[in-house]
Amino acid sequence: MILLTGLLLGTAPVEAQDDPVLYELEPTDITQYRSKNTATLQIVQLKDGRGVEDPNVIVHKKNGYGQTTSGTYVAEKPIAEVVTSAVVEALDQLNYKVSPEGKFKLSGRINSVDRKDFPGLLDDSIQFSLDVSLQITTRGGDPVWSENFIGNGKVISSMAGGDVIREEFDDTLTRVVRQLQNSPTLYKALN
């Protein structure tokens, strides 16, 4: 199993962090789409279309009034690299072969990573979403498949700090790749 480099959260530079946190896609029972997958895919790193200056930024911090501040929660690696690695692992769990000489080419874009805070009397509610578009073409560029995946999550916490953000990003990313793994249109396009 491939371990994806996890998320180091905080406002300090990444080098200042001590303990890396690993994101790992847990195995799942996805036999419905696993058995006959023989397609070979070349994977192109996803593009980050979020318009952030630092590609390692997950989301900006918010103050007690829900207003965005200059602080950020950052990952050890660019978010596009983390999401691309999760997609590769998800396809590997489906028994697709990933190779630079693949018959098909998978590319995509991270459209957004959003966080909305809803302050409560005792606890805060945080809604998190990750929007990713993926497409597969032949090596010649002819379209074969495309789909948009949106992972949503909600957490209620009295402390909406780095650990909560990391956990919710991990859960939201897992929701996106599970949608990919259970996509009947992907299975139909490649088999």
Ordered list of secondary-structure elements with their pairings:
Layout: E1 40-43, E2 47-48, E3 57-62, E4 68-74, H1 79-93, E5 97-98, E6 104-118, E7 124-138, E8 143-157, H2 162-181, H3 184-190
Parallel strand pairs: 1-5, 1-6, 2-6
Antiparallel strand pairs: 3-4, 6-7, 7-8
Helix pairs in contact: 1-2
Order of secondary-structure elements: EEEEHEEEEHH
DSSP strand (E) fraction? Answer: 25-35%
Q: Which fold does the CATH topology refer to?
A: Rossmann fold
The number of domains is: 1
Structural class, please? alpha/beta
Relevant CATH superfamily: ABC-type transport auxiliary lipoprotein component
Give me the Rg, rounded.
17 Å
Shape: elongated
Fraction of helical residues: 10-25%
The CATH architecture is 3-Layer(aba) Sandwich
Structure notes:
- It is a single chain.
- This protein has 191 residues and is an alpha/beta fold.
- The chain has a single domain, classed as Rossmann fold.
- It is 22% helix and 35% strand.
- It has three helices and eight strands.
- The strands form two sheets. Strands 1, 2, 5, 6, 7 and 8 form a six-stranded mixed β-sheet that branches. Strands 3-4 form a two-stranded antiparallel sheet.
- α1 packs across α2.
- The longest helix is centred in the last third of the chain and has 20 residues.
- The two termini are 24 Å apart.
